[in-house]
Predict the 3D structure of the following.
Amino acid sequence: MDNSQPGSTKNRIIGAIVVAALVILPFILAQFGMTGEFWIWVTTEMIIMALFATSLNLILGFGGMVSFGHAAFFGVGAYTVALLMKKAGVSLLFALIAAPCVAGITAAIIGWFCVRLIGLYFAILTLAFGQLLYMIAFQWYTFTGGDDGIHGIPKPEFLDPTNFYLLCLIIFLVCFLVMRMIVNSSFGLSIRLTRENLDRAKFIGINVRRYQLINFIIAGAFAGIAGGLFTELNRFAQTEFLHWSKSGDAIFGCLVGGMYSFVGPAIGSSILIFLHIILQQIHQSLVEIWAIILGFILLAVVLFAPEGLVGLYLKITKKSET
Amino acid sequence: MKPEVLKIENLVKSFNGNTVISNISLSIAQGELSAIIGPNGAGKTTFFNLITGYHLPNSGKIYFEGKSIAGMQPFDIVRLGIARAFQITNIFPKLSVLENIVATVITHKKGNFNLVTPTVKLKSVYERAYQILEDVGLADRAQRQSGTLAHGNQKILDIAVALAMEPKLLLLDEPTAGMSPEERWKTVELIQKLWQQLNITMVFIEHDMDIVFGISQKVRVLCYGTMLAEGTPEEISKNDKVIEAYLGEEVE
């Protein structure tokens, strides 16, 4: 079933508790010195990547289109912030406003070609465009710094780890609520129609490509915000941000969390990052076999919880009710 | 003579050199309830696909209310007032029955680009959707996931989706295919009721001759891409060519 309808009171309460916990969290972590600061950094990354995964899910879960090129918009957002702040010296605020705009324009150009295709061909074309941008960033040394990337992005004084965490949390919550509003709107329903049945959608008067393109642009713009924040978090931008494996991270997040639910991708992506870091903490060698571990996780999800953790949760709670 | 809703002139369609529709001309009068019959492979569904813009004709003209529509996109043709239900059920299976209709009503009202208001807050849309479900007798199943409905009810929902677009011309491709005999007659009664109630033009493809001769005002016979005969049910049942080419085969 589709779980995108506006939440019940119970879900709202859970949401409020989670948000409250997320607001308090950095203040608790700050008590633990260096370790605490490290975990603030990790949770900030989790929040940013949750935004990225949620934006991808507008295309993947709600639009039913598999895109391997979503990192392109994440990367464009990242480089926009990096270049504007480092080379043009603009403020963080302005750079963060520019990031989704530039990413959205890029998505409009790439999407214009991609929505002409469906299914596998769409996926391959998004991959091709994503890798094209990756190669441009890689080769254009004078502009993007090539393989080195752009380092030493200035950080405003007031942004200590806690404040930056809170900034990311606020931006995430705003984006999250806006995307949720879109999903529950008439436009969101129309997008789900195109996922469910492309042909039928045409025969009730929906210009499928136009809707898919607009959805693609919206998703790209939000990915750009995530990319911009990620750059500021790391204080560098590098070609890796554009690489298709970055798109893969978001896709895995959607799969693990459940792409037919709105919160699923954020949860899935956060869990995967958390696991990755925990393994790293236990032993460095575990990180080297991360791909294998991830493979097993995905296998388990696909076999036993095809609708992800949220789908599994709903199944269990439904069973206990009856 | 009533004004014609649809007028088709010398329509030709071929796929990879196979001519499926060869030179069909006809006109359908406003408010008519008519049937298209013909053996399998006669080109009946292709004919609907051409009218609704799913296929482009090789040559020929299609006029809807005097406007040439050949070459237009399906979603534009629908907006002019030609809706269709499909031979193989064609709904949005993961959405609820109600959502299927709600989405169509929103689309019909051109409200799709509203990115702000939650759909559940659109009261008038929901009222309209419930009314349509009442009309077709699916109101008690409104909250069911549409893909889990029984086959017959999915076909009815398909028709309801088409109705939600408030068409002037409704094309039904084998509306009773795969149904049990009782379901069939219930569906036929429904079609007849809707036709009278809504005062629209309907064309249906059907294999069951009892249904065809029972409710249609006019029958058109397609055979190998050409129009073999056209007339009232009585004329058709007495037409030698039709009996020979089509009805006769069944008796043998």
Notes: Chain A has a mean pLDDT of 93.
